[in-house]
Amino acid sequence: SRMTLIDKSLKSEDDFFEDAETEAEVIADIIRENTGKTVYDVKRGEYRKLCYKDIVVLSRSRNSISGLERYLNNSGIPAYGDNSEGYFESVEIQVFVNFLKIIDNTRRDVPLISVMRSMIFGFGEQELAQIRIEFEEGSFYSAAVRYSEEGSDEELKTKTSEMFRTLGYWKAVKKTVTLEELLRRLLYETGYFDYCSGLPVGKQRISNLRLLVEKAAEFEEKNYSGLYGFLTYIDAMKRNNISTGEARTAGEDENAVRIMTVHKSKGLEFPVVILSGAGRRIRPKGSGNTASLHKDFGIGLPSVNRAEGWHRKTLLQRAIERKKADEEIDEEVRILYVALTRAIDRIEVTGSVKDSGKLDENDPGKKSFVDMMYSAFVRGGDDIVIRNSGDVKYADDRYFGKRAYVESLSALIAGSEDEDMYDKINERLSYVYPYTSSKKVKSKYSVTELNDAFMKKDEKIELRFPQFSQEKKGLNAAEIGTVMHKVMEKLDFKTALEGGMDYIEEKIDEMKEGGTLTEEESGYVKAENIAGFFDSEMGKRASLSTHSEKEREFILLKNIEGEDTIVQGVIDFFFEENDGLVLIDYKNSYVSGGTDDREIVSRYKEQISLYEEALEAAKNKKVKESYLYMFNSKKFIKVR
Prior knowledge:
The chain is of the alpha/beta class.
């Protein structure tokens, strides 16, 4: 066994790399050192050489898995992060999603640089730096555009202009194909699919990419908002930490180092286990100034003096916090036990500490895994290696371009007295993006989005789960509403007025037989709720009008927070009378008996207002009346 510690107090002055990256290099050194050693294979009953698949790196947190995976692969060590809860954090998905983002909007600097740096466009770090140095003003996107037109290096200029031509081509393709087809063509025509299949654990990576295509198909089947909507959905899933799970194909035969959480490793064993991040502080969660809860101690509330304006923790509250802290430490000890017992032959422990000189070999502490194990390693005679981050040798640049010219750059910074250079660096670091407010406004909205924004400014967004992430248990309210709209669109209003329920039920059966409605969908259509529309005075007016339209699509230019944006929507139904237009919007929302009509109107008034504005602009006529038809209560509610 061995413990390797990175002592941050010994960090050299010119060392500007982060602790996580330093520890990643230590892990890479340990892997290189162990591969090729002789190990006894219990299953075979013989000695053999240790290979990559015999080594696992365990992490306390899944957040560090993708970064370590990327580092090891770039260092020439095949590695795969078994991060089933972090599908969108896998490297191949991150790069491809960034590619989709710049096809949707090329002006996004971070995704643009990510894709330029990837194999898709193959720009090196020095090429990216040259573009920025030559054109310092504005965004990186604008610098790249200018370089493609005015750049000094003809080869780089051609490469940059070719990239923009390629992006222009895919932007054009996006408008002519389905979302699923767009993703498939991007994967195969750019060579990205073949590239990923050749990487370590290639089968897993291409399975992840195939799963993304399936997700796109599922999304498109339920939504019609295209690439932008799909990207927004992905971002929302990441932001809300919604797990989707990776495609599971990586097996024991893949000769690659596995990286996984300690929790994920339960029940598994490996010849060599590297426990990473052992220096991370264990910080029990306090309750702050709120109530403290414990299953045995009950509820501890703070003492509050409103008159004098202060509050303090009570004795019970402090006792509960101490008890919970002890329980959290006990849980960490159990996790450490799981990690240490995964190793068959050798356990390696790595971590960063503030000052290795303060570690007490006689008194095991509980501040970190290192703190808990240090005295045991000392007493057991195991190796303890102390390293500062300055003596780490970075991976050979033959494998990747990330560390190019690190040594010369360190020397340049150490010996530089160029004030102009310092001024430029300060200017770059102090730059404030002048159009921050524009980032809050999208280029296109649906009417429903704007209405929700007016009604739910302070509410947390709840995502609707797609079919691929949950078991289907009937139609939800929104899906039933879509089905009801579909039936209303297919009905002949004059015939419905005369034929009543018989005609409506006959039409529903006809739609089911023709495949317009599924068997399941037809079961949710309540013909009596639709018949209520035609039994009313308003329904008769609508049915007998000389001109009417259903499902009228529109696009409206609106100014939102000082920015011009496009609003897109569909008007359910309107009809014309001599003195103006009458607009009707169908609602399948459940409304409790005690709900006042004014409350319902206030919920949808912004949406109806946008419909009215769009309809008046399109028809050049005044909307004299607007109504909501509530399917469940079979009544009309006047909005205007």
